[in-house]
């Protein structure tokens, strides 16, 4: 006789599958059917002649299957029941919208015997209860999974949309430290329809002159937030030269020095001290801003000199202490020379010597002539001073200038009461010695000795240039 084994009764969850029967026996024919008043489309001609078909009943309930097995020896029957358990009822709740910082309760009341699992867990106070409180930072889709006593599960989702309300802030236009006599502009954000400041103002910004705490409440149709800022009084701060300018050893007379800007109204006093051992020169320069232009004190600055600088601020009698002292050194004194096109030229006493260039901040130009004899040896040295870059040869001691002579010319400058070295030397020449003769009106005249001598003396008109 054939063997019919429909398998043990089974319980599954709706949507799952059950495998009926057992392994096929060779020589046997198999046929599965379901009781006439039940309906299972998963059992069809495609699989109802298998020894172990897979079925998926379409709804909850009990499904009774009959297995018929036949061979040449006869026909036998067996029966099996598949119980399909319904899925648990699941409801994650209605999609909702909240403002940033608000919370909402998800889900529906608990059903005894069910277990609950929410994911993701971000913003949930408890992900394993039926109705957790959600406070997500951003829009989030939550998935609820419920498992019942039959170990059947079901899922549902809910979307919590978060209106990201930017936090209210207060921005000061400079800093939050109030200088004497100053006011500070406080601006609220974000841009909104309604503002309420702690001083009663309802504008987006206010000006304050007093210290203390200031708050603003910013609101619109969705969001409300409050911000606070503290304004304190500034003891007039100490300042100094910016670090990149301290210790410089090659500072031009035209340089610009910068103190650190303290952001307060008022003036800046720069104290510049000449560190030369034999100098007691201390200069106080008051500026309306934090910038010192050395051009403005050109006549007191020296080349090749180290200076210390300290800075303080002043406003309406409120004076800070001096900041840290730092030093700088001016560039070496520039030199000049005779304008090259004049070198090698011959000059009379009305001739004009001219320096090649004007030296910054130079108050005087010293022209030096060194006599060079026919053997190339140095002779007499002459000097004359001019307030600009030109000098007539006759400005030198006239009785010491020689005619028909070579002179080496060099020039030094006086800037900041310090003479520079003489610059490069070049040579010039003086004209030959001029000649003269007896006044023609006395020629071929007969005069007494004394008259002749007198008229000779008064009639010769020497020209030395």
What's the layout of helices and strands?
Blueprint: E1 10-13, E2 18-19, E3 29-34, E4 54-55, E5 61-71, E6 74-85, E7 96-99, E8 104-105, E9 115-119, E10 133-134, E11 140-147, E12 153-163, E13 169-172, E14 177-178, E15 184-189, E16 194-197, E17 205-208, E18 212-219, E19 224-233, E20 256-258, E21 267-274, E22 282-287, E23 291-293, E24 306-315, E25 318-319, E26 326-329, E27 346-347, E28 352-354, E29 362-372, E30 378-386, E31 390-392, E32 406-415, E33 418-419, E34 426-430, H1 449-459
Parallel strand pairs: 1-6, 7-12, 14-19, 27-34
Antiparallel strand pairs: 2-4, 3-5, 5-6, 8-10, 9-11, 11-12, 13-15, 15-17, 16-18, 18-19, 20-23, 21-22, 21-24, 24-25, 24-26, 28-31, 29-30, 29-32, 32-33, 32-34
List the uncertain runs. 452-465
Please identify which CATH superfamily of the largest domain we are dealing with: Immunoglobulins
Q: How does the major sheet shape up?
A: 6 strands, mixed
Q: Provide the CATH topology of the largest domain.
A: Immunoglobulin-like
Q: Kindly, what is the distance between the CA atoms of the first and last residues, rounded to a whole number of angstroms?
A: 160 Å
Q: Which CATH C-level class of the largest domain is it?
A: Mainly Beta
- How many domains make up the coordinates? 6
Helix content: under 10%
Please count the helical segments: 1
Strand content: 35-45%
- Rg result: 55 Å
Q: Which word captures the global form?
A: elongated
What number is the mean pLDDT? Answer: 85
User: How many β strands by DSSP?
Assistant: 34
Question: Which structural category do the helix and sheet elements fall into?
Answer: mainly beta
CATH architecture of the largest domain: Sandwich
């Amino acid at each position: 006789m054939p063997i019919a084994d429909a398998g043990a009764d089974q319980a599954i969850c709706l949507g799952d599958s059950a495998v009926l029967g057992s392994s096929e026996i060779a020589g046997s024919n198999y046929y599965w059917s379901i009781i006439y008043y039940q309906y299972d489309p998963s059992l069809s001609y495609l699989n109802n002649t298998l020894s172990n078909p897979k079925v998926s009943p379409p709804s909850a309930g009990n499904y009774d299957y009959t297995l018929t097995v036949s061979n040449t020896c006869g026909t036998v029957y067996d029966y099996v029941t598949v119980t399909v358990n319904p899925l648990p009822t699941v409801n994650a709740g209605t999609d909702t919208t909240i403002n940033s910082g608000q919370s909402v309760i998800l889900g529906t009341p608990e059903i005894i015997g069910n277990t609950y699992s929410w994911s993701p867990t971000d913003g949930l106070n408890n992900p394993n209860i039926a109705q957790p409180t959600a406070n997500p930072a951003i829009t989030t889709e939550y998935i609820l999974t419920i498992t019942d006593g039959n170990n059947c599960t079901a899922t549902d989702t809910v979307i919590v949309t978060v209106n990201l309300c930017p936090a209210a802030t207060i921005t000061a236009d400079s800093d939050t430290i109030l200088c004497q006599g100053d006011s500070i502009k406080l601006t609220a954000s974000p841009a909104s329809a309604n503002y309420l400041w702690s001083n009663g103002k309802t504008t987006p910004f206010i000006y304050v002159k007093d210290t203390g705490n200031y708050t603003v409440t910013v609101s619109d149709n969705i969001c409300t937030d409050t911000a606070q800022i503290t304004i304190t009084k500034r003891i007039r701060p100490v300042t100094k030269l910016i670090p990149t300018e301290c210790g410089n050893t090659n500072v031009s007379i035209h340089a610009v020095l910068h103190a650190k800007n303290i952001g307060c109204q008022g003036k800046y006093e720069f104290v510049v001290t000449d560190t030369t051992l034999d100098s007691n020169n201390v200069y106080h320069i008051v500026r309306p801003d934090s910038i010192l232009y050395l051009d403005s004190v050109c006549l007191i600055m020296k080349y090749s000199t180290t200076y210390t600088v300290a800075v303080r601020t002043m406003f309406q009698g409120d004076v800070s202490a001096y900041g840290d002292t730092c030093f700088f050194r001016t560039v070496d004194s520039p030199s000049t020379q005779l304008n090259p096109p004049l070198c090698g030229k011959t000059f009379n006493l009305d001739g004009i010597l001219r320096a090649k260039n004007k030296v910054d901040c130079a108050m005087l130009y010293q022209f030096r002539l060194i006599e060079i004899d026919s053997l190339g040896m140095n002779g007499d040295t002459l000097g004359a001073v001019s307030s600009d870059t030109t000098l007539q040869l006759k400005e030198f001691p006239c009785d010491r200038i020689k005619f028909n002579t070579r002179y080496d010319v060099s020039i030094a400058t006086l800037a900041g009461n310090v003479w520079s070295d003489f610059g490069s030397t070049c040579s010039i020449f003086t004209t030959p010695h001029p000649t003269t003769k007896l006044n023609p009106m006395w020629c071929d005249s007969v005069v007494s000795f004394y008259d002749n001598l007198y008229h000779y003396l008064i009639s010769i008109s020497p020209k030395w240039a």
